[in-house]
Amino acid sequence: MRKWMPLLAVCLGTFMLLIDVTIVSVALPRMTDSLDASFSALQWVVDIYVLVLAALLMALGSLSDLAGARRVYLIGLVVFAFASLACGLAGSSEMLIAARGVQGLGAAAMFATNTALLASNYQGRDRGIAFGMWGAVNGAAAAAGPILGGLLTEHLDWRWIFLVNLPVAVVAVYVGARYLAKSPTRRDRRVDLPGTIGFTFVATLLIFALIRAGEDGWGAGSTLTLFGGSALALVVFVLVERGRRDPMLDLGLLRTPSFAALMGGAVVFSAAAFANLVFVSVWAQSVLGFGPVKAGLILMPFSAVSFVAAGLAGRFLAAVPPQYPIGGGLVLIGAGSFLEMFVTGTSGWTALLAGFLVAGIGVGIASPILASAALAAAPSDRAGMAGGAANTFRQLGFALGIPAVGTLLSGVVATKLAGSGLFTDSDAAADLVTGGQSEAVLAAVPEQSRNAAERAVENAYAAGLDQVFLAGGIVAVLAGALVLLLVRPSARQPESDRPSPAADTVAQGELRAG
Description:
The protein has helices at residues 5-22, 28-35, 39-67, 69-89, 93-121, 124-155, 160-163, 165-179, 193-216, 221-242, 257-286, 292-297, 300-316, 323-339, 353-377, 383-420, 426-434, 438-443, 450-486, 501-508. The protein is mainly alpha-helical. The longest helix has 38 residues, at 383-420.
């Protein structure tokens, strides 16, 4: 039993950091009620966690090489625990967003060190068992998050989705401190602080711009200024990275068509497959009137199918050239999005079921292959960087997808509500509706018009979701076509010797939002 204590310590941390992506989506309407939060604040509650995780993942991986993976992991656990406490005690949306950002820092420290800890604590057959169990925990966390979040939110309070982390973190710190072996260090590595700061500025300004576009319009001066600032930060980032001896990301990798297409596919993969699920959960609660538990359960078919498909893909598609499962998976995600476009104002959640099943298969097929394909597309001395980049771009896709989906959804809802003529301020009403506050909007309507206003809200949200699914489907299909055209098996590594996709999925881990 003692032999598996290091695995327990790592799995507990992994479970927490993955749960805290998926668990939040079903609690958003209750959070908005409790904190009187705006629609943009609601987006940041979800987004800031993944943004910080994506921005710091590669830098903390380098830091763990210098300071030791065990030390960085344990510090990450402590930071995550204190941040979870702050989230649970937050009295305002601003405090909650700040605490979620710190949570992302702790999660990045844990996520960046998981595979190194398992590799250093297990050898031979035990290592395969450890990685297999860890991969199962990843899948279980992705599937259990919405349900656990619904149970805690409905029967206790939304704050418990964060406070529940505290006893788990205490056990993980104790077991990790006692049983994790000390990790080797490498003094030849350096943390690319300028590159990390530059990358964070690029992503943050772009996310701000997407959110501002939903509030002020795409042509507003504030929106254009933020987009321009993001572009300028990108130029600075490129110049800085080109001059670094040990960069966070070797930009030369992106000149390889296969690698560039894979990174683009990673961004679209998360944006198209997962970003819309946050607003599907809001729709289920705010428009269909579901409780948090039932809203979490409607996402189960997607999670379950993707989990099963990933296991089968890892087993049977190992020898298939990577462009086919990745490109085909993206096309299936797009097809699933198109099938989800049949939502109307009178639809129940089952209108999404066929799309969930098809998109779930696409996620399961593409996900296990993506990490191994990125490793194979890079030179052997850049394999670690390539794997870190694949994870970073995947999380970046979700971070960008949330405001993009929110802006599109809010704009369509505002247009439809304005067309109904029942709301004095359709823009303000749209922000409340898309943020899960339909009841507050309807309460402000004269009683004689309330039934008509309710129909208008239902039709507007359905129309907004249809446009979101259409956009996601188009982007996913185009990305899949590019992957099919540009990605080729690596000449560096023979097909039969390429690492198992299933092992690489476990080795890299994955964050699923739902």
